[in-house]
Amino acid sequence: MASTFLRWDEQWLPKSVLLLRHYTLNKFGHDLVAGITVGLVALPLAMAFSIASGLTPQAGIYCAMVTGFLISALGGSKAQIGGPTGAFVVVVAGIVAAHGIDGLFMCTVMAGVLLVVMGLSRMGSAVNYIPRPVVLGFTNGIAVLIASTQIKDFFGLKMDKTPGEFWLRIKTIAAAFPTWSSRATMLAGGTVIVMIVCRLISTRIPGPIVAMLGATIAAYWLKLPVETIGSRFGGIPSGLPHLAIPQFRPELIHGLLGPALTVAMLGAIESLMSAVVADRMSHDHHNPNVELVAQGIANMVSPMFGGLPATGAIARTATNIRSGAQTPVAGMIHAFTLMCILLFAAPYASYIPMAALAGILMIVSYNMGEWREIPQLLKLTKTDISVWFVTFALTVFADLTVAVEAGMILAALLFIARVASTTTVSQVTGDYVEDARVHILQDKDIPDYVTIFRIHGPFLFGATDKVAMITERLAELPPVVIIRLRNMTAIDATGLFALEEIARQLHASGRALILCGAREQPAKLMHQAEFEEVVGKDNICANVDEALRRAEEVHAAMNTVADTIK
């Protein structure tokens, strides 16, 4: 009974508590360096996201500081960094425009409550039920919208007001383009170039902070007539944020239900996606339910300090890991770094040019768009392409909430149709029995250097998390892994993406992946997507007999290479 209670209790313990049991001074040293580094990177991003959302720059810093600490302290991920992200920019700007700051604070608290309920209800794996084309569609759409909001500051245009609707915004920008400033454009362009160069030299270099400092120094010493944080907002107040309970306005609840659900869903999706990326980079395994609870608590607390909605930030999390983070303590130090900046360096922030922040957000919007996946998506079925296109178009030209809802409804209908199409009725004949002999496993001799996994049933969105059992046991696997697809009746874009991830992880560990026995629909889609380029044409086999022969060849080649190295 006691052991059962302990197991249940540990399921809800934050990762920080679990890892601090074996904490050392050496780990603290790594966490200290990583935390300070990611804190410096978070500073310009937090300000840029807040300004793009229609708020003051300090609101973003308050959010990054408060939620960053809580998400690291209470979350289920080893290296997750929380704070404001680009995904919320469009939603937050819309909420502020429609309901004001009070409406935003109420919406953030409501979203936080929803996230806590999702975590306590063990819905951490529910993010897997959102198809990849839907996620890609609204990610692309958000990236386009963020970039469009930064054109004004990037080129230093003189505009009284930037419209909220995409088409009106583009029309207004086009009308104001003759007022562009060459100096602002040079600063913004220089910021973009510096960030790209930093990334090319080393991923450890904090590109945003280097670019922001360079642009600020250039604007100050050359006395460039460009708009700065000081000229637009009057600077950033020194000191810590004040605790204030947001005003509760019951009349706003009905109008905020949709936006609150959108914020909660975006927060859940991005935080869990970020946690998965962190797992791959740090060779850890996050607890999705604990992570959602932490995200919810952070969003409930953020408005009390004047902050925005927050979620896991993929870029900052990756920076944290690359900088050597060992435990969630790095995330807490990142929050303390921002606090120190507020206390001791806030006056200097007034010199930061708005063009520099616009340049940083242009790079962020490009990176978050995942544009490299679009050519792969266009090789898939018309149904996957249509789901992506509808979600993307509605995100840009309509509303993010509508886009996600429409994308999910369309994907659900297509899911039903795809599953229904896998149902067949056929007569068992002598030829059928003979043809099936090469696929059965009962009479096969499976050598020690091979292990076989099988996928049974439709491998569509919502089911792809089950294949994680392969990578979770990565260290125990032999040199050659065969995945038998004989009983996989259908696959979609999300399923293909999951198989690609498995292939990459196996190859990175020095193992080979062989697929065999794919039926008509999966085989056709894999060929359309040029999946053979991922695993190798010779490693896609017609049946398990052929796969075992191929495994023997691969293993012999591995031994030859090993002998040559010796």
- Sheet with the most strands, sense and barrel status: 4 strands, parallel
Beta-strand level of the residues, as a percent range? Answer: under 5%
Number of domains: 3
Overall pLDDT, averaged?
Answer: 85
Enumerate the strands of the largest sheet in spatial order, edge to edge or round the barrel.
3-4-5-6
From the N-terminal CA to the C-terminal CA, the straight-line distance is 53 Å
β-strand number:
6
Shape: globular
Please give the count of helices: 24
Structural notes for this entry:
It is a single chain. Helices cover 63% and strands 4% of the residues. With 566 residues, the chain is mostly helical. The strands form 2 sheets. It has a 4-stranded parallel beta sheet, with helices on both faces. It has a two-stranded antiparallel sheet with strand order 1-2. β4 (480-484), α21 (493-508) and β5 form a beta-alpha-beta unit.
